[in-house]
Write a structure and sequence with these properties.
There is one protein chain. The chain has 178 residues and is an alpha+beta fold. The protein has 2 domains: 80 residues, no CATH class; 80 residues, ACT-like. Chain A, domain 2 (Alpha-Beta Plaits, 2-Layer Sandwich), CATH 3.30.70. The N terminus is likely disordered. It binds nickel (II) ion (NI). Nickel (II) ion (NI) binds next to strand 4.
Amino acid sequence: MPHPKSTEEHQGARGRSLKVGARTAAVPAASAPASHQPERTKANDLMRFSVAMPEDLLMDFDQLVARRGLAKNRSEVIRDLVREALVEERSAIPGTLVMGTLTIVYDHHSSDLNDKLHTIQHDFFDNVVSTMHVHVDHRTCLEVIVLRGETELIQTVSNMILGTKGVKNGKLVLASVG
Ligand code: NI
């Protein structure tokens, strides 16, 4: 039985077909002879599977792959998207330990805003790992707050900060660390 010649599809963004293999199979490392293939698959072995999608969706996906640069191909972008979805799902499970980066932009001339933001961060000193403050211009500040803790607490603290009057905009990005 022939085996795949490479560990990656090389059609990349410009290929037309997303079919990456007719069967689910472990891909052998590099081009090792068949006799040297491991008998059992390991957790990090690449598995191939077929994906079907409408042509217009595939064309949009190929443009996304192209935007992500020469180092990325369809397989790598699909893996990135799957990991992203898994992190998002895990981060929603109560009790999950997460790291979060909360980025906020605010006007430091707003009345006692600096004090309020400072107080919240001291109230949750166990969960605030680090804060980076950038003076963007005469009025505007940007702060990146690194948080660690159970997901619901991190989201609560973030919402308190984002909801403080004078914070113009911001966004919390979670990463699961489990
Ligand atoms: Ni500042």
